[in-house]
Structure formats: C-alpha cells, structure tokens
Amino acid sequence: MQPEERPPQRDAADPRPLVGEPLFLDLLNTRWIDDGVRHDLLDSTDGLAVWLRSAGLDERATADRATLDATVRTREILLALVDEEPSAQSADALNGVLERGALHLRLGLGGPQNHARTDDPAWLPSWLAAADYLRLMADSPDRVKPCAHPNCVLHFHDTTKNGTRRWCSMAVCGNRAKAARHYERAKTGR
Ligand SMILES: [Zn+2]
Asked: Is 22:153 a contact under the CB 8 Å cutoff?
C-alpha cells in the first residue's frame, strides 16, 4: 500500500548535512553539530518551513508556532526513545502523540492509499514521525543507529547489506575519524 504523501525532495534552502533519512530520523536530524557549533533548524517557524518542504509535508502542514511547538516536543520524545534506556515515561509520551491521530484507509485512483488525520493539524508532522518510528522499530530496530563519531548527534537508518554503516557520512564523520586515528598512530610511532 502506498502512502499518498509525495516523496520528499530536498529543499534548496535546507542547510542540514544529512537529509533523506526516513521521516522520524529526518526529524531528529534537524539538530546537528558543525565545527563544534550546535545548529537547530527548528529554532524558528522559517526553519520549520524548510523542514516541512524537505519532508514533503508543506502542503499538509502550516509552518506556524503551534506546529513548531508540537514538532519540537515530538523530536524530544523521539530522541529520548532512541538515545536513552527504554522507559514507561518515554513510551507514554510517544503514545500521547499517537493518540492525536489515526490512519484512514481508502481507495485512490492509483490503488489503495492510507491517509493520516489528526485532531489538530499542528500535530500532523509529529504523528507521521511517531508512526514512522513504530514502522522502523517493527521492521529493523537494530538498523536505527547514531553516527559513531563522538561529536556528532545525527542518526541514520542503515540500509547496507551487512549492516556495517557507522557514520552519518563517510565524507564528513568517517574521514574525521580516520584522520584522528592516523594522527594517534603518527604521534605514538605505531
Ligand atoms: Zn556524523
């Protein structure tokens, strides 16, 4: 069954180093660290507008204060679920988001569709991200990973055949780690 959302397309104004991950990870990846400086795309409704376009949700959600507050709150809940030990508190928090909406099944011209609806439109991106989290936890929980670089806060879905992906990006974090190892070896003469 195909979701009726249009596929995400990177917005030209999107400054993030990692895009194109599944929706719940794409929401987590609105925070990143670049040269020791923390960035947050969701620090304004303008940034939210960029994220909604990148996530393909700009026709279904409004980049207003209510949507921003809901989305940032949901990002915190999802971060706690991914980065901390499982707890009843974080499960309850996620269930609180999920209770705001439901999936309606219907037949479209192209075949079966599913369509998410929420009690308040401000919660639609949050609900979709929470539902996407459940989907990935059901399909491949061990493939949801944080970047292995200690100074990186990005997360990704490892779709490599053997599950060997360690970095958000080989070009950025992979090379930084390689350079650091090289430096350590040179320094200790090994
Ligand atoms: Zn990284």
From this structure: no
